[in-house]
Amino acid sequence: xxxxxxxxxxxxxxxxxxxxxxxxxxxxxxxxxxxxxxxxxxxxxxxxxxxxxxxxxxxxxxxxxxxxxxxxxxxxxxxxxxxxxxxxxxxxxxxxxxxxxxxxxxxxxxxxxxxxxxxxxxxxxxxxxxxxxxxxxxxxxxxxxxxxxxxxxxxxxxxxxxxxxxxxxxxxxxxxxxxxxxxxxxxxxxxxxxxxxxxxxxxxxxxxxxxxxxxxxxxxxxxxxxxxxxxxxxxxxxxxxxxxxxxxxxxx
Amino acid sequence: xxxxxxxxxxxxxxxxxxxxxxxxxxxxxxxxxxxxxxxxxxxxxxxxxxxxxxxxxxxxxxxxxxxxxxxxxxxxxxxxxxxxxxxxxxxxxxxxxxxxxxxxxxxxxxxxxxxxxxxxxxxxxxxxxxxxxxxxxxxxxxxxxxxxxxxxxxxxxxxxxxxxxxxxxxxxxxxxxxxxxxxxxxxxxxxxxxxxxxxxxxxxxxxxxxxxxxxxxxxxxxxxxxxxxxxxxxxxxxxxxxxxxxxxxxxxxxxxxxxxxxxxxxxxxxxxxxxxxxxxxxxxxxxxxxxxxxxxxxxxxxxxxxxxxxxxxxx
Lengths: 252, 315
Hints:
The structure holds 2 protein chains of 2 kinds.
Chain A (H helix, E strand, L loop, with lengths): L1 H15 L2 H21 L3 E4 L2 E4 H31 L2 H6 L5 H31 L5 H28 L3 H18 L11 H9 L2 H12 L6 H21 L5 H4 L1
Antiparallel strand pairs in A: 1-2
Helix pairs in contact in A: 1-5, 2-3, 2-5, 3-5, 3-6, 3-7, 3-9, 5-6, 6-9, 6-10, 9-10
Chain B lengths: L1 H19 L2 E12 L2 E12 L3 E5 L6 H9 L6 E6 L9 H4 L2 E4 L11 H9 L8 H8 L14 H13 L5 E5 L7 H16 L3 E5 L3 H7 L2 E6 L2 E6 L12 E6 L9 E3 L5 E5 L2 H15 L4 E6 L3 H9 L4
Parallel strand pairs in B: 3-7, 3-8, 5-6, 6-7
Antiparallel strand pairs in B: 1-2, 1-4, 8-9, 10-12, 10-13, 11-12
Helix pairs in contact in B: 4-5, 5-6
């Protein structure tokens, strides 16, 4: 337990000092929040219910920030550290893979909770858009669950990315299409039934749905949890099978 | 003759001391292939406690693969490998507490200072060496609060060494540890290896610098095409101690009665198994002929000469 706390402490330090992580998880979502929420007016519909567009976008941007922290940053970090020999050097020490992976997961959850809190405070302060008190618990729950699920998926993705140069394209190719399909920028009520059904089977929409529910009328959707749990199992299984401490060239 | 006798006596004494020490690494019939290409072809060697073993060989000879099997990063296809009493491929946390590894290539921990890097790694061990002591050991005290990623190449390498030593290991693997060092940093690294040796730490070193191997190693193993082609102390490797010395000199005419070879630059070369006697005879000839022996030089084969001969590399 002491070793895990030790690992988390230094992982948080490294994340806090990493410009890429600061931009992907905090600066970029904050800029989007200020611009998009600032210029948005009117309403949209979520599951047929009318919702203010500003409120919808705050939930969407919070989900996007969470993806940046738990998926984008983790894929980039794991691939970079593996290919640069950092993981290999750690493998030569007594530290276990479990401590390294858990340390990163807990650090990621901490960062995601902090950035979500900052986004909600800024949205409330600038635009008067906040979550109902009863919804804050659900949002925090969604952030913790989402961070863990997307950390699993990030480790799985990192295990198939061959080198540092391929990391960013792999992240963007998997994240961007999902943003458009998953209720981040606009409600999936506007999508055809078939596409909506497809989107709901993917991992981002259930997470976004949990956050939107927290922002509007707090209620847990078990379907969301089931889909997220299934993706976590898939990600963890791939990661467990393919995780390597060694650069791809050496592991081959 | 006297020198050869002394060399033989020292070699014998070293061999006797070597045999008395505990074996920390034992390799028997080690084989490893990548696909159809066999890169390690049945090699055997041992490392004793407190010994510095240098593994030399050209690029692609199989030395890094061999060392990575010893470190537990790769599995052997065949043969027996025992490191500190365990199979490295199956060894656990307790075994890793006892080793330190300097990789051939790695970058510092992202975002952390030098001191933080060492503190992070110190936390992985039950009984680490104090961080400040380790900083002093590698001469990085002045850089302790600097971000590790901003260090120069040589300073990064010293941090790599510090990270390998933070666990206070009894066996250290140094894979080309002084690559990129300037001459003074290299001397400092050699002093560090000396102090580790004095503490009884066993060291496996790979290097491309013959001077480094000669200066640091108790024994040298040369690998070529996945096989060991020579093993011995720096003095005796490849029969170096028994090899004839080369006496070269310039003279106005070829000395009579000597089996000399004329070199392209006009000087003469005499292969000598008995340097003192041959020099005495040569100077006698020069005095009687009234000539000077110019540019007189006595040279035994260097470690590099032996290495190049054994690895078949062009000179």
